[in-house]
């Protein structure tokens, strides 16, 4: 999960901290989040329920798999010609 941060203080190993207005961090670089205890998580967390998508009407449509001729089954295993 990518994360976008505002008003960040970045500290690299062996260097002085740098203040940044915005910082985006790619999800695979995040190990864990440390949140302050004063943060009320119950009001911030939203239950993520999957929404049921309404089915589209299928009257007059071609059934799946019946569109066009496809890409074929390949050309065999050899190169040009036989022996």
UniProtKB/TrEMBL annotation:
GO cellular component annotations of the record: nucleus
Keyword Plastid belongs to the record: no
Entry's localization field: Nucleus
Biological-process GO terms, alphabetical: RNA processing
Ranges for domain Sm: 1-34
Biased amino acid composition, Basic residues: 68-83
Region listing for Disordered, in residue ranges: 49-83
Entries under SUPFAM superfamilies matching the protein: Sm-like ribonucleoproteins (SSF50182)
Record key words, sorted: Nucleus
InterPro entries (alphabetical): LSm4/Sm_D1/D3 (IPR027141), LSM_dom_sf (IPR010920), Sm_dom_euk/arc (IPR001163)
Protein name listed in UniProt: Sm domain-containing protein
High-level lineage: Eukaryota, Viridiplantae, Streptophyta, Embryophyta, Tracheophyta
